[in-house]
Amino acid sequence: MHIDRYLTCFDTKNIPNEVVDTIIVGSGLAGISSAYYLLKLGIKPLIITKKKPGISNSFLAQGGIAAAIGCLDSVDLHFQDTINAGKGLCIEKNVRILVEEGLERVIDLIVAGVEFDRDENGFFKLTREGAHSINRVLHSKDKTGYEIGKKLLEHVKDNVFLAEGFYLEEILTDEDKYVGILLSDGKNQKVVRSKSLVLATGGYSGVFLRNTSAYNVSGDSIAAAYRSGCELMDLEFIQFHPTAIYLEGKPGWLISEAVRGEGAILVDENGERFIDELRPRDEVARAILKKYQEGHKVFLDIKPLIDKGIDFKERFPNIFNMLKEFGLENSTKIPVSPSAHYTIGGIKAQLDGRTNIKGIFAVGETACSGVHGSNRLASNSLLECIVSGYKTAYNVYINNMCSRIDYTNIDNDNDAKKQMDKPERENILKRIKTIMWENVGLIRSQKSLETAIREIESVYDALSPYCNVRYLKDLTILCKGIILSAMARKESRGVHFREDYPTQSDEFLRHTILEKNFEINFRRF
Questions:
Q1: Dihedrals φ, ψ of 482, to 5°?
Q2: Active-site residues: which are they?
């Protein structure tokens, strides 16, 4: 499977060109955080967003944000819980930065006006989620991501350049030097040149048929970064959330782990509990999957939570409204199953956003900095968005001080001239997602992965004659990287489980790196 450097036809001489200091692609919490701190440094970025700012997965995050802010907590304890959850693959220096500076950034949020839930005495209500040893998750009802993002967006929206309705088609480079980006609104193309590019476009759980991802967030920009020369890291680690609503033909909307943290339990159709609900998510998800494979059904029983005196509608208003849409608002047993949720892998980057290509930065779920190891500790993801956004802003400032805009002209043409109609593109997209769900899901094997490779490469070949399938090609490129990474890791660790290699192996206490031409290497950091 040969991939071209560029998948879109263009000539920068014949396309409108614009120039800014810094571009941020994506308007979720990682992108908005980066913009928030860039503005404090005197840099006015351009934010590119497919829809409107704040239409993102992070703004939908229900549970909360973890920080060692409780009187009985400590950053050392938060550090150790994160390390334990990561099963040997956390990059410890980055985890230390995450938990120490994360506490400071959470205080920044409080000062900025984010209203976390408090008790009648004014103390923060801290809840506990899976694999935490103490209550340390701050929350705003069940819409924490929205509350944080809304407050930061208030500070940002009128002070940045904004391009709504555009999406990234190509990252332009000249001999591995960053030049700019090619944008499209579906009809017209535009080139924007800058000194720095911040990629904050979310993860890639959307490549799976059953997923909790919203707004078609599926990782195509990660593949575009790969084509530009960025290395990708740990793509095999995809976290499947244990509890998404399971109704035939309905979307797999997430039911936050905070619901289990408050006391809800998992039971089968006989009402029998079969797992400690606060064990790491991968263990809980596989236990649920096993129940289904044995012919059982699985429900999230919220009656124990209600028996504790918790008003479900008041504590989880968003989830209650979602259940109401499905006619489940009066049910205490909610049908659930695992769903692809959070992707630990991504563009290899430092926690300060730096990638192996100067001028290109990656933040949030788009990036992989090693803070999650092989299994993310619950509610560390919003924390990562804030910390990496902060640190990336300072590195962008430094990069801009010693960089110049590159005006090199770049063009690309190919022999593909045919147009694929929308229904066929939708069929191809569903096929990609089905291949990944059936063969590269919660439980994998050499046989299933080999099947996935053959079928994904077949899809890519079928796309070759068409000139309007850049998005689908980028997804197949990313999927092949995920599959190759999963094949290379011949062990089970964290969220990566292979039934033919069901145990951990010290041989694989290393990170998988996807380099050019689909070459996989392992590295220690």
A1: -60, -45
A2: 281
